[in-house]
Amino acid sequence: MAALVERDAAVVEGLLAKLRDPDTDLPAKYRILFSLRGIAGREAHAAMLEGLKDPSALFRHEVAYCLGQRQDPAAVATLRTILKDEREHPMVRHEAGEALGAIGTEECLQPLREHLQDPCQEVAHTCQLALQRIEHFAAAAAAAQAAAEADANATESRYYSVDPTPAAPASTPLPQLASSLLDEEEPIFQRYRAMFALRNRGGSEAVQALGSSFTSARSALLKHEVAYVLGQMQDALAFATLKRVLEDANENPMVRHEAAEALGSIAAPECITLLKQYAADPEPIVADSCVVALDMLEFEQSGGFQYADDGGAAALASDGAGKEVSASA
């Protein structure tokens, strides 16, 4: 993750005023959030927390994601409260758990342990992954060989997101990665490692292996992350697969939401047509995701450099390969 930058208090105050304005639409709120995400300091952090009051579960989950990507320990108490709140949308709770794993401090451990067996499977699996992520990097710090492996994986990735798990070693054969990803008996932590290694590998075989998980995997959490990494890869070969996911009304909304945002990242003409069609989907999370994806596309096609509010656009940290914005997973 790129370093946060300093901005005048007036910039943050202006962004916060826009965020609180009831006339600010969802795409504009996203631009404000992505600006605040890249700004250092308590004021920007506090302004981001205002977004958790928003009626949109999609936006609240994006706020939780951004708090994790900042890796600021100041967010731990808030994220812990979200994770415990069973009245909150499962997608928001999932993102809070993942954010705790991304921050990875000692105080993140207990809330994650408390929800390892959460009644919501997506939340439970997220906390299991987050805890294993923290344990993995703690072990790597204590063992020179493991540390060398972690460093190698970090440099092999072209992507700057703080991922829920490290990638499997780049030397792992692609068929082995594909087999691990699709193996329902494999621990989900290892399946995630295979997934991120396939993303880093890139190419048609990797895209095909990732896409196969939508028809074989039982875990909505895994499938939503696969959709996210396909969006990061921005490979048009994934269009047909993502189209099927978005069109499937029986699929978990969090998976369809990520498919919509991934289609927006690919940005082919057929993606735009599909997103316009599903911007009126009966599921609000899916519809809102399509609206935001279309707004991001329009911004990029206009020649804009960073998808953010003009008041703090320069603060936005790059979070993808050749793409300035990477929305949540």
Automatic annotation (TrEMBL):
Function: Catalyzes the hydroxylation of the N(6)-(4-aminobutyl)-L-lysine intermediate to form hypusine, an essential post-translational modification only found in mature eIF-5A factor.
Record-listed Fe cation 2 binding positions: H224, E225, H257, E258
Binding site for Fe cation 1: H61, E62, H94, E95
Key words, A-Z: Hypusine biosynthesis, Iron, Metal-binding, Monooxygenase, Oxidoreductase, Repeat
Cofactors demanded by this protein: Fe(2+)
GO molecular function, one term: metal ion binding
Free-text comment on the cofactor: Binds 2 Fe(2+) ions per subunit.
Catalyzed reactions: [eIF5A protein]-deoxyhypusine + AH2 + O2 = [eIF5A protein]-hypusine + A + H2O
Protein name: Deoxyhypusine hydroxylase
N-terminal signal peptide: none
Keyword Secreted applies: no
InterPro entries: ARM-like, ARM-type_fold, Deoxyhypusine_hydroxylase, PBS_lyase_HEAT
Assigned EC number: 1.14.99.29
Taxonomic source organism: Micractinium conductrix
One Pfam entry name: HEAT_PBS
